[in-house]
């Protein structure tokens, strides 16, 4: 039985629950000083004066760093986020007095203890010269801009045929505006950095989804070679996209460490997690669908405006899935940015697809009602057999099976389509569904493998485990390739001294790092096999290498399994030196020949109180085609977590900005609502059997994000079915129903 796919328990689970797993803020260094940031209280303008006469006399204070004394950095070259590359110098780093958003770091205080640092930070007297700020969609929409394409060779906007004309000639039309709010990632572990210089070498302990990206950004920021910088991050307590970039606090910690000549820790407080480390943009999405009587789409138009900040350009790519999911005769998609005085936006779990699918899949439900057609049938009428955007076949697509199996598991056939037609006691019952999709991304990654004389193996790759199961599945992949039991294999990650791996974003860790781990492990195993068949003292001497199977630490003749010897015997006869191999695996021509996506179908049941408008979600069914599942337990847990995210997005999540001041008023986990166990009923997630020979050697398409896609739409569709009220503005709260 294959080791890959088994529901192995998390190998790092025991360390996590016993406190053995060290997170970024928990590393101990000699003479470690503590830093606190001071944030602006205006949204636009400049720092007029800073009075530190009291603060600098307070106990323990080592440094007060402001734009007046901060080290001068090489001029930053801002890059767009959302392109895969981390933004360089993503926000102002105390290089001048300018303030671009409320909450921008304007000073860093370093002291011997955290209490001293915070006390002195509060004692700083800062006066501002305030200017009128651009705040809110209405104001920001006066100067819209089109973002650059996400990748070279792509286009931001799409037009196929004559969508406006075809829309006006369509028999049945939907034209609706959907809106989604700013959301904040709020991982359990707040961002934290420890920075330490030794001469001109910098070490960073940073909670990150992209350690090599942090290294590159720091190298650019400080004008030094990346080799001078080491970034370590063995554990991450959740990231969801906010830890895909190196934000200001990382560089400020390094600058403060340089100035004080001592290691500095800068751990953000929960309230500081809103503003300086990214958020999901708010969106306004106009969806127009024109259909024929049989449900075939004549025209599909998706026009999006998303909020943006003056700090860094970022556009929520809502239209990505609209281009490829269905087969309208005529198509239009547009993306615009409305720039305002807010902290930077960035990628947040399923950037684009999660918010875009709310609009698209809600509009499809509205069309299904307009046509009096079953929503699954409508989707099947417009099913894309190949990618209509790239004009390429899919490497694999099991969406039909997802619809069919999902409908079966949910009991969809028992649904009566009229709104308010189903009840449970006095509760209104609603059943809704939506499609999910997410691209199967992949990037170059490297790994090393070493088989030691004692029969254990060490595999290393500078990747990340965000709580997703990377440690566990990479160990499984390596064990399978090595022919060793899992207990003999150790996998290490989270250090830029290790072979470089892709950032953990875009659901691509398994598809990128997995093949590298597999290749390095396989190469090391093959070396041992080669040693054995060339060795006169081996019972396998003279066999062709591919006639030898390796399993459970034994080398054996495939034809005569009794002809065998343990791996350790081969290594011992060769002086006991470890056998090592390196790999460097990257996507190839197959990416030009196939469109690669995961797909899924999600079904939601809601119970709505007819008097109070309260919504409960007793059950969700999600069925996904994601290629090969690496671990039954951690994999399904990823999908389930995505569904929970989707419910949070649909029912609760919203960063409330006071539009007079540009400050978030719910910058804490008490007022920013996310689902807790009591909010979640049964979540039945499963995957269909899918063999994709094209995506990568493992056949894995990535599962970190697809689970959230479509959930908010399926929920909104269920709420409409229950109540007859169509809510087009997230989150769907009770005030919108009564
Ligand atoms: Mo994800 S938003 O690509 O971490």
Explain the overall architecture.
This protein has 15 helices and 32 strands. The protein is an alpha+beta fold and 738 residues long. The strands form 8 sheets. Strands 3-5-1-13-10-11-12 form a 7-stranded mixed β-sheet, sandwiched between helices. Strand 14 and strand 15 (297-309) form a beta hairpin.
List the helices and strands and how they pair.
Layout: H1 13-18, E1 33-39, E2 45-51, E3 61-66, E4 98-99, E5 105-111, H2 114-123, E6 125-130, H3 137-140, E7 144-145, E8 158-160, H4 163-168, E9 172-180, E10 192-198, E11 201-206, H5 211-222, E12 229-232, H6 248-260, E13 264-267, E14 283-291, E15 297-309, E16 330-340, H7 353-371, H8 375-381, E17 386-387, E18 392-393, H9 399-410, E19 422-424, E20 427-439, E21 445-451, E22 457-460, H10 470-482, E23 489-492, H11 509-533, E24 548-551, E25 554-557, E26 564-566, H12 567-573, E27 579-585, H13 590-593, E28 597-608, E29 615-625, H14 632-651, E30 657-658, E31 663-664, E32 682-687, H15 711-723
Parallel strand pairs: 1-13, 11-12, 15-16, 22-23, 29-32
Antiparallel strand pairs: 1-5, 2-4, 2-6, 3-5, 7-16, 8-16, 9-14, 10-11, 10-13, 14-15, 17-18, 19-20, 20-28, 21-22, 21-27, 24-25, 25-26, 28-29, 30-31
Helix pairs in contact: 7-15, 10-11, 14-15
The chain binds dioxothiomolybdenum(VI) ion.
